[in-house]
Specification:
single chain; Rossmann fold; 9 helices; about 220 residues; alpha/beta; 6-stranded parallel sheet; two-stranded parallel ribbon; dethiobiotin synthase activity; 10 strands
Length: about 220
C-alpha cells in the first residue's frame, strides 16, 4: 500500500464527504487502486440488508470494490446525533479494534485508503476514545477540511493545533466554500499565513455534486 489519508473537518456539514470523494477520484486518476472508508456514520436509513448511510454508499460505489458494506462502514446508526450517543441508545459501544480490523482488510486490497471521519476532530467514539485514537492506530496523516464561513479561522486554527498536539500528522488542509454569500478569500489568505502545512486544494462552490470537477482542484497530493 502506498499512502492513506484521514479526512477530518472543522465541524459537521462542511463538505468532508465531497472532499473524500474528490480525493478518491484524484488518486484513481493517478492510476492508483483506492478504497474509501467511513468507519462511523449516524443518520442512517433502514434497508433489507440493514442500516445504510448515503455517504458511505457513494464512497463504496466510487471505490468500485466488491467488498462487504461493513468494510466501508462498520458502525451505522439511525439517529442523526453524535455516534457515541447513538450507540449508547441501543446499548452498544463503538470498538476501535473492529474499525482497525476493517481498515486493515481494505488496505490489503488497494494502494490507498481514504478514511472520512465523523463530525469534527474532538467527536468521541466511546467513553474513553476519540477520533485521535483511530488515527494513531491507523498511523495515517490527517487532512483538515475547512468549511469557509464566518468563524472558520478560529475553528481551523484550533483544530490544527489539536490534531498536532494529539501526536498526529497534519498533512495539509482543504478550503471548502459552503456559503455562497461568504467571500472566503481573506480567510484562506489568513490561514495560509498561519497554518504551517500546505493548502492542498481550494474547492469551487457548487450547488450540486460534481466529483470529477472537485477532483481536478486537488493538485498537491502525490
Amino acid at each position: 500500500m502506498n499512502q492513506s489519508w484521514f479526512i477530518t473537518g472543522t465541524d459537521t456539514e462542511i463538505g468532508k464527504t465531497w472532499c473524500t470523494l474528490a480525493l478518491i477520484q484524484h488518486l484513481k486518476n493517478q492510476g492508483l487502486r483506492v478504497a474509501g472508508m467511513k468507519p462511523i456514520a449516524a443518520g442512517c436509513y433502514e434497508t433489507l440488508a440493514g442500516l445504510r448511510n448515503s455517504d458511505a454508499q457513494q464512497i463504496l460505489e466510487l471505490s468500485g470494490l466488491d467488498v462487504p458494506y461493513d468494510w466501508i462502514n462498520p458502525y451505522a446508526f439511525a439517529p442523526p446525533i453524535a455516534p457515541h450517543l447513538a450507540a449508547a441508545q441501543i446499548g452498544q459501544s463503538i470498538e476501535l479494534e473492529i474499525i482497525i480490523n476493517k481498515y486493515q482488510q481494505l488496505a490489503t486490497q488497494v494502494d490507498s485508503v481514504v478514511i472520512e471521519g465523523v463530525g469534527g476532530w474532538r467527536v468521541p467514539m466511546n467513553a474513553t476514545q476519540s477520533l485521535k485514537d483511530m488515527v494513531l492506530a491507523m498511523d495515517v496523516p490527517v487532512i483538515l477540511v475547512v468549511g469557509l464561513r464566518l468563524g472558520c479561522i478560529n475553528h481551523a486554527l484550533l483544530s490544527a493545533e489539536t490534531i498536532i498536539g494529539d501526536g498526529c500528522t497534519l498533512a495539509g488542509w482543504i478550503a471548502n466554500p459552503i456559503d455562497s454569500d461568504f467571500d472566503g478569500q481573506a480567510s484562506i489568505d489568513t490561514l495560509s499565513e498561519r497554518l504551517d502545512v500546505p493548502l492542498l486544494a481550494q474547492m469551487p462552490y457548487l450547488d450540486s455534486q460534481d466529483i470529477p470537477r472537485l477532483a481536478q482542484g486537488i493538485c498537491l497530493i502525490k
